[in-house]
């Protein structure tokens, strides 16, 4: 009789790369559990298949985020029946497997916050307006902001109503301003003299 022998003197090379992904900040975690197999797909032998686990998560803006989505496990199994099964034999040792991380990125959420405008007829008192509002973009649901608005116009004319010191917090009161790209916009205070007061000097 003859002999049948299967060898594994030269292991097939596989490179498994974790997915990369990005999104605008929305207060929730970004994950990406998928992967790609780099290189020659033919290196995965007939009937063999991968079971890959990928772990990574990012919630806040981090300019230094790199390689934060990692392949944490790679198993190669060989399908022996019509469908894949937990009973399929493992053949991971027949491969030389390398892994590469992906990168998960959160970009700042863009909002414009504008100081209030105000206008009135001259009455001898100072015109002020301390309010402000988000006029472009939006805050994440449950988030709020505080801002300092300073300006005063006494006489007829216009002046700047200046906004500063914008702080955005989440629902628990934690500052999250760094997750936003905030554009501050000043308002305008205007005192008019459209209807002149009538005085009679006798």
Structure characterization notes:
- It contains no helices and 14 strands.
- The protein has strands spanning 12-18, 21-24, 35-38, 48-55, 70-78, 95-100, 104-107, 109-115, 118-121, 132-136, 144-150, 157-169, 180-185, 187-192.
- Strand 11 (144-150) and strand 12 (157-169) form a beta hairpin.
- The mean pLDDT is 93.
Key phrases:
202 residues, mainly beta, 4-stranded mixed β-sheet, 3-stranded mixed β-sheet
Summarize this structure briefly.
By secondary structure, this protein is mostly beta strands. Helix content is 0%, strand content 45%.
List the helices and strands and how they pair.
Layout (H helix, E strand, L loop, with lengths): L11 E7 L2 E4 L10 E4 L9 E8 L14 E9 L16 E6 L3 E4 L1 E7 L2 E4 L10 E5 L7 E7 L6 E13 L10 E6 L1 E6 L10
Parallel strand pairs: 1-6, 2-7, 8-13, 9-14
Antiparallel strand pairs: 1-3, 4-5, 8-10, 11-12, 12-14
Shape: rod-shaped
Name the structural class.
mainly beta
| Strand arrangement, major sheet | 9-14-12-11
| Annotation, overall tally of beta strands | 14
Fraction of residues in β-strands: 35-45%
What helical percentage do the residues reach?
under 10%
In round numbers, the mean pLDDT is 93
Q: What Rg do the Cα atoms give?
A: 32 Å
Count of individual helical segments: 0
Low-pLDDT sequence parts: none
H/E element string? EEEEEEEEEEEEEE
Tell me the distance between the termini: 138 Å
Query: How would a crystallographer describe the biggest sheet?
Result: 4 strands, mixed
């Amino acid at each position: 009789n003859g002999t049948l022998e299967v060898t594994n003197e030269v292991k097939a090379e596989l490179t498994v790369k974790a997915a990369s992904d990005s999104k605008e900040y929305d207060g929730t975690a970004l994950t990406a559990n998928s992967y790609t197999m780099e290189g020659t797909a033919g290196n995965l032998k007939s009937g063999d298949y991968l079971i890959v686990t990928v772990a990574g998560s990012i919630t806040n803006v981090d300019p230094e985020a790199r390689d934060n989505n990692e392949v944490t496990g790679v198993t190669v199994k060989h399908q022996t029946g019509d469908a894949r099964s937990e009973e399929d034999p493992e053949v991971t040792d027949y491969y030389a497997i390398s892994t590469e991380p992906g990168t998960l990125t959160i970009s700042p959420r863009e909002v414009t916050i504008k100081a209030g405008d105000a206008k009135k007829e001259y009455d001898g008192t100072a015109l002020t307006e301390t309010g402000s509002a988000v006029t472009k973009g939006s805050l994440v649901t449950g988030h709020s902001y505080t801002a300092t608005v300073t300006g005063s116009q006494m006489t007829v004319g216009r002046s700047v109503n200046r906004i500063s010191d914008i702080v955005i917090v989440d629902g628990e009161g934690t500052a999250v301003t760094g997750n936003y790209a905030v554009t501050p916009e000043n308002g305008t205070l205007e005192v008019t003299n459209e209807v002149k007061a009538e005085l009679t000097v006798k």
